[in-house]
Amino acid sequence: MCWRRPSARAKRRGGGSRRCWSLAPASPDSGGQPPPRSLRPAGTRSMDSDSGELSEGELVSPAGPDCFSSKNLALQAQKKILSKMATKTMANMLIDDTSSEIFDELYKVTKEHTRNKKEAHKIMKDLIKVAIKIGILYRNNQFNQEEMEIVDKFRKKLNQTAMTIVSFYEVEYTFDRNVLAELLNECKDLVHELVDRHLTPRSHGRINHVFNHFADVEFLTALYSLDGDCRPYLKKICDGINKLLDEKIL
């Protein structure tokens, strides 16, 4: 999951017109940028149109709904989203194995904290969908120059957040839930700003759903509790983050 000014548009409404994008190639005179929306072929199917959205019951692990697998859900999501677009294939998975392992632990700790398997599954499913869509946009050069600057800001902020997560775990009594919550909310604002012209309000709602959970101070307090039930999950999460940091992915 290789990703990187908070926006005044932090609050997203649930309605509004549908925004679509296609993988139409850039024209020779466009400087390598995709054509404006008004110039894109009429009728082109969007990965974030209503028909392209994944319904809430479609992503299920092969072993059954009780066996959560981020890797399997990511593969299903990638195939489903690409099937709604002009580009049908992509050489590599957009979510790497280490990130999938981290996601699996995030699911377990979310289920432990919320005591709600269905909600934990929905949070992680929303996270995977958003990550896949951003990955497809990035791989297909859909971000303009201004948005690529936001990508760079997001990478730096994500790196700072990742190092803070690990530091708070490795150095006892340094954990500050407000600091970590603020970093996560800054990441959320950057993601909203990055995909503003590409994704629908429904996807913006998913972004809020994911970040509002992980930035919740009560969740963070439970996660970092020295004698709490979530400590083993946090260790595995930090082990995975350290690996991504060492490999320069984060």
Describe the structure.
The chain is an all-alpha fold and 250 residues long. It has 8 helices and no strands. Helix 2 runs antiparallel to helix 3 and helix 4 crosses helix 8. The longest helix has 26 residues. The protein is globular and about 45 Å long.
Largest sheet: none
Span between termini: 9 Å
**What structural class do the secondary elements suggest?**
mainly alpha
Mean pLDDT: 78
Shape: globular
Low-confidence stretches: 1-45, 49-63
Q: Specify the number of helices.
A: 8
What share of the residues lie within helices? 40-55%
Rg calc: 18 Å
Q: How many runs of DSSP E, i.e. beta strands?
A: 0
Secondary-structure element order, as H and E?
Answer: HHHHHHHH
Strand content: under 5%
Topology readout:
Elements: H1 70-83, H2 97-114, H3 117-139, H4 145-170, H5 177-194, H6 201-214, H7 217-224, H8 231-246
Helix pairs in contact: 1-3, 2-3, 2-8, 3-6, 4-5, 4-8, 5-6, 5-7
